[in-house]
Design goal:
Number of domains: 1
Strand content: 35-45%
Number of helices: 3
Structural class: alpha+beta
Shape: globular
Largest sheet: 5 strands, antiparallel
Low-confidence stretches: 3-58
Radius of gyration: 39 Å
Order of helices and strands: HHHEEEEEEEEE
């Protein structure tokens, strides 16, 4: 090979080597990710949604019914007057199949208090206020209804046959003791044939002092009104 051709070949090989070295030292630039695979950063709206805690729903508070008991009624409302969503439950113990009319254990009334974050807990319980399912006589189940208004609640029971009786028990929240006290009792009896009626109003002040919901027993009240016998 002529000397000139040898020099040109050597120069060409040197340039190729230099270019190869420069290519190896230069870091490769990663390709931009495809838009479809990118994950958007959370927005302020997303964060706000995650921070909102759901309130405890009715299906959840039913889980606070004592084991072995059956839910009779549930009422939502403000039991303390603080604007929270509290609840009242009425639950029944098992009834013996052989129990006769007028026999059976009273139902339980539970007051569920909202702690302000949507979580409920049992704040008070009474096991004497609502008679058993078969204790209403011919009128059937004596439990009528429960009603909650801001800071107080009323439980109504009734029963009988020809002479129908009814009792409304009203309890008021007392922030000083963080409890519910009996406020008043209204009792009534009516003869469904003659229409004769007697009504009795009892205020807490006339019942010998404060009576707490948890300790209250209707049997401790004065005798209920009676109808005068009428000759046929």
């Amino acid at each position: 090979m002529p000397p000139m051709s040898k020099r040109l070949l050597a120069l060409s090989l040197s340039i190729s080597a230099v270019l190869a070295a420069c290519t190896a030292d230069t870091p490769s630039t990663p390709a931009a990710p495809d838009a479809a695979t990118q994950t958007a950063a959370p927005t302020a709206t997303d964060s706000a949604k995650e921070a909102v805690m759901p309130t405890l729903m009715s299906d959840d508070i039913h889980q606070l019914v004592p084991a072995g008991m059956t839910l009779v009624d549930s009422v939502r409302g403000d039991l303390t007057g603080k604007g929270l969503d509290d609840a009242l439950l009425v639950a029944a113990p098992p009834t013996a199949p052989e129990a006769e009319l007028g026999q059976g254990s009273p139902r339980s009334v539970l007051l569920l208090r909202n702690d302000g974050s949507g979580q409920m807990q049992v704040a008070a319980r009474n096991d004497r206020l609502v008679p058993c399912e078969r204790c209403g006589g011919m009128a059937g189940d004596p439990y009528a209804y429960s009603r909650i208004e801001a800071g107080h609640f009323t439980i109504s029971v009734s029963g009988g046959s020809r002479q129908r009786w009814a009792s409304d028990y009203r309890f008021q929240y007392q922030p000083q003791s963080n409890s519910w006290q009996l406020a008043s009792v209204t009792r009534e009896i009516t003869d469904t044939v003659t229409g004769q009626n007697q009504r009795q109003e009892l205020e807490a002040s006339a019942l010998g002092g404060a009576l707490s919901f948890a300790d209250f027993d209707p049997a401790s009240l004065p005798a209920a009104p009676e109808l005068e016998e009428q000759l046929n």
